[in-house]
Amino acid sequence: MSDQSSSRPLHGRWLVPVSLVAACLLGAVILTLFLFWFTNWSPAEQVAIDQLTSEGRGGGYVDYDWELAQWSDQEGPPGNFVMKALLGEDYASHAVTVDTYGRSAEMLATTLIHLRKLQTIDLQDCEFNEDVARILADLPELQTIRFARMSPSAECLAILAQATRVRELGLLDTQVTDAQLAAIGEFSSLKEIFIVESTGTDEGLSKLGQLRSLEYLTIHKMPQITDEGVAHLKNLTKLKTMLLPMSQVTGRSLEIVTQMPDLESLEMTCLPSEQDATLATSEIWPQVPTLSSIYLDAPCINDEDLATMAKMPNLSDLYLANPSITDRGVAKLAHAPELFSLTLLGTHISDKGIRPLAQAPELFFIEVSSDRKIRLKTVGQAEVEYERFFPKGPQPHLHSPYEDW
């Protein structure tokens, strides 16, 4: 009888050993402390990222490699807390892209040194010195460096040139000098250059002609360069894109593209010249069958050019401003097999030249400005839009330097 009563709860409750209660309380305390530490402790990489993205005196953002990966569930990566649990101390070290602005050189130096997996950095309106340049040059995976509203010195660029992994360099909203161009010419593996404006001369452009691995060259405004400067680019045989829309070159410079067998996109402004009548520019286009996009402000372009352009197998986008063309030449483009978009500004063409374009198999868009009345609204499947005609030439319509930034 006494044995049975001893197993019953006292006063309706079960007895719990004190040691078990103590163990549970201790476990709860330890778990709470761990969770507090886990969610609040930050490695040096995370501290660096917090500083680079904070909004005080600037701002920015960071991309991690696991954010940019392809996710099979199509729902994107898990949240930061989950990735922190999975990656532990390596959570923040997976930053591959940093875009920051308004930072001091001291902050850049003390933060970027921790981001060893960084691949792309965009610096806007930041202080930049040789110490920061050395840190960037030492990052083992850095491939893309872009500056906006700041001007890295030639000395800083020379330090960055020692980083053999850098493939892309951009300078936006800053005047790039000959000295800076000379330093850029020392990058051994550079594939892409994007410069909005340069005060450089033919001598500076000649330094870029040393970059034999270059594939994409954009200098939106370089008003001092001439045909002699462009001639220095003849060794850039791997170029796929060459954009030099605002300069002092003439139609003579178009001949350079025959040295670029892989060229896909060309944009140039060619000033009128006494030699235009003698230039055989129509012989250029058959030698560059890879071209898919041609943007030219060039009076030297004539009906013979249109006839050879119509035979280009990959030409899909043709923009011509101030060309010396007639209705007869425009009609030749009806045979262009891949032409999708056609813009002809500052012309003297009429409906007679545009109407045959209804036979162009892929043409979808036509834009025209002419001093003659054009009444057509559609041509085949293509819509026809009209620009105002300017007797002194059309307003600039070439690509904005900010489109790809």
Structural account:
With 405 residues, this protein is α/β, with parallel strands linked by helices. Among the domains are: 40-142, no CATH class; 271-405, Ribonuclease Inhibitor (Leucine-rich repeat, LRR (right-handed beta-alpha superhelix), Alpha-Beta Horseshoe). It is 27% helix and 21% strand. It is built from 14 helices and 15 strands. It has helices at residues 2-6, 18-40, 44-53, 65-68, 80-87, 105-112, 130-138, 154-160, 178-184, 202-208, 227-231, 303-309, 327-331, 351-354, and strands at 59-64, 95-101, 120-124, 144-148, 168-176, 192-198, 216-221, 241-244, 265-269, 293-297, 317-321, 341-347, 365-370, 378-379, 382-386. It has a 15-stranded mixed sheet with strand order 1-2-3-4-5-6-7-8-9-10-11-12-13-15-14. α9 links the parallel β5 and β6 (192-198). α3 (44-53) runs antiparallel to α6, α7 (130-138) runs parallel beside α8 (154-160) and α9 runs parallel beside α10 (202-208). The chain is elongated, with a radius of gyration of 31 Å.
**Helical region count?**
14
The residue-averaged pLDDT reads 86
Oligomeric status of the shown chains?
Answer: single chain
Share of helix among residues?
25-40%
Rg, alpha carbons: 31 Å
Largest sheet: 15 strands, mixed
Extended strand count: 15
Brief digest:
This protein is 27% helix and 21% strand.
Features:
membrane; 15-stranded mixed beta sheet; 14 helices; transmembrane helix; alpha/beta; Leucine-rich repeat, LRR (right-handed beta-alpha superhelix); 405 residues; transmembrane
Write the layout of secondary structure elements.
Elements: H1 2-6, H2 18-40, H3 44-53, E1 59-64, H4 65-68, H5 80-87, E2 95-101, H6 105-112, E3 120-124, H7 130-138, E4 144-148, H8 154-160, E5 168-176, H9 178-184, E6 192-198, H10 202-208, E7 216-221, H11 227-231, E8 241-244, E9 265-269, E10 293-297, H12 303-309, E11 317-321, H13 327-331, E12 341-347, H14 351-354, E13 365-370, E14 378-379, E15 382-386
Parallel strand pairs: 2-3, 3-4, 4-5, 5-6, 6-7, 7-8, 8-9, 9-10, 10-11, 11-12, 12-13, 13-15
Antiparallel strand pairs: 1-2, 14-15
